[in-house]
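2024-03-11 09:14:02 INFO worker-7 job=invfold-0412 stage=load source=structure_tokens
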């Protein structure tokens, strides 16, 4: 994680230098500042600062090196328990379809979003209670 933090600090310096060069180039070429590019590159530098600062704080708070940062770590060191996932469940596919229908409804008509919301409630209920009924009840 320390390497990732350093990469984002380097990217911050790069984007600040790029923003400065872009602004100077626009002043020389056009005689005025081109605001869209200047602000866009500056916001990219600010985003790099945010991510670098977050990674730095996370690195300091974790209390040690992560397994992927150590040279002597094995694959099993970085393999935590991720939880239980249903390998045969169709509910995530239905949820993805309702999300697609909902976003299409935002573009086409709000009535589709309402229908997608109803299907979403059915699909999320089915996914949550999948192991309470039927063949896989516990």
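2024-03-11 09:14:09 INFO worker-7 stage=emit residues=138
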């Amino acid at each position: 994680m320390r390497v990732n933090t350093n990469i984002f600090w380097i990217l911050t310096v790069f984007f600040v230098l790029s923003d400065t060069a872009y602004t100077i180039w626009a002043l020389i070429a056009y005689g005025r500042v081109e605001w869209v590019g200047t602000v866009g590159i500056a916001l990219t530098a600010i985003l790099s600062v945010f991510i670098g600062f977050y990674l730095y704080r996370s690195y300091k708070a974790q209390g040690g090196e992560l397994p992927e940062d150590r040279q002597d770590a094995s694959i099993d060191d970085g393999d935590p328990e991720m939880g239980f996932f249903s390998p045969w469940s169709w509910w995530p596919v239905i949820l993805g379809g309702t999300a697609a229908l909902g976003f299409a409804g935002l573009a086409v008509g709000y009535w589709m979003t309402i229908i997608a919301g109803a299907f979403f409630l059915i699909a999320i209920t089915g996914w949550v209670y999948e192991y309470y009924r039927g063949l896989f009840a516990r």
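2024-03-11 09:14:09 INFO worker-7 stage=report msg="Residues 2-67 form one domain."
2024-03-11 09:14:10 INFO worker-7 job finished
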